[in-house]
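INFO batch 0412 | record 1 of 1 | parsing
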Amino acid sequence: LTRLYGARGCRDVRISALARMTGGASKEQFVFTLEHAASAAPERLVLRMDPWMGIVETCRGREAQLLAAYAGVVPVPPLHAVDADGEHLGQPGLVTRFVAGVTAPSDVAAKAVTGVGIRFEHWTAKLAPQFVANLARIHALDWRCCDLSYFDAPAPGTTQAALRQVNWWSRVWRDDVVEREPLVTLVERWLRENAPVCANPVVVHGDYRIGNFMFTEPDGAFSAVLDWELAHLGDFHEDLAWSVQRLFGVPREDGELLISGLLPRDEFFAAYAEAAGVTVDLDIIRYYEILNAWKCIIINNAT
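INFO prediction complete | emitting tokens
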């Protein structure tokens, strides 16, 4: 960190109160305080850095560009510095300002790992509308007017959006597989043969779900949408299908599964369609549900 901020022109850099943060499954995260000769006051910051090996391999440069693009659009941790190639940190990383908030209510007892299993209970009425509205805002961004030079857009009106995801994750499977599984190959073939056309590529968050947003108490206002590392340009249905995975669902008292612990599946689709001004195609949702389940098998059984 001293090297990183020295390279940015800071003099008399002082790093203190450095501590590893808990949570997450794919990146090393640390909170620290930065002071330097030109700083008016100590700054509390968060370092998000690649480990030597992780559950997914992604690009900090891409993540940094998205944080910059979405500042003021949806709540995101303000970007402070980036070392996309790890020149100063030793491994690729980025630094954001520390954001106050929680991922789970402090007054609801529920154990959760990386967000899975959180119960929101009486907070749901405040959080569910924001969950939907922020996803619609993510997809509404005119990314062509932003600096997303790390990204390559699929051509509109083609199947490239889906097939690029299939290509990416099939490559990961081949690189990381421990034990061959014929079903993975069968599903890959089905995904290639049934890839849907994407008329209008958008920024897909890639991991929009329970545990990946923060809110403040007691007002319940979203303070940050987290974990942009899997984001890419593609079909908005992919994000919807990721959010509705049973893995991220929480059963209500009557047994109905709440999407990301917040609202029933049909209500989620209807609320999103209204907020985004689009029609949700359930056949395309089904395709991306299969793609996402296949992706999870690759992440968990190989990488």
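INFO post-check: The mean pLDDT is 95.
INFO record closed
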